[in-house]
Amino acid sequence: MNYYYEILIGAVFMLISSILISAQFIAASIFSINRKSFSPGAIYYVFNSAGYLLVILSICFFIVGLIFILTGLKNKK
């Protein structure tokens, strides 16, 4: 029964990771609204200039969630 909690915690960490990376894209799209010239790569320019804090946190949460899920599946056997 204990491995269910590890898998559940891993899924929550994965959910937080996806929310953080989505927040980065939403922030980049909001920041790119007031640009006078819009090119196809403009949102990625704003995405890179907005900082990497959310991306780094998202990667960390993803790795932690993956570790929890893998240990939960390993303990299941």
Describe this structure in words.
The chain is built from 3 helices and no strands. By secondary structure, the chain is mainly alpha-helical. It has one domain (2-76). Helix 1 crosses helix 2 and helix 1 (2-31) runs antiparallel to helix 3. It is rod-shaped. It starts with a helix and ends with a helix.
Helix content: over 70%
The percentage of residues in β strands lies in under 5%
CA-CA gap between termini: 12 Å
Largest sheet data: none
Task: Provide a count of the helices.
Answer: 3
Any low-confidence stretches, pLDDT <50, length ≥5? none
Task: Give the total of domains.
Answer: 1
Which structural class matches the secondary elements?
Answer: mainly alpha
The chain-level mean pLDDT equals 84
Q: In sequence order, what are the helices and strands, one letter per element?
A: HHH
Nearest-angstrom radius of gyration?
Answer: 17 Å
Q: Quick one: overall form?
A: rod-shaped
Number of strands: 0
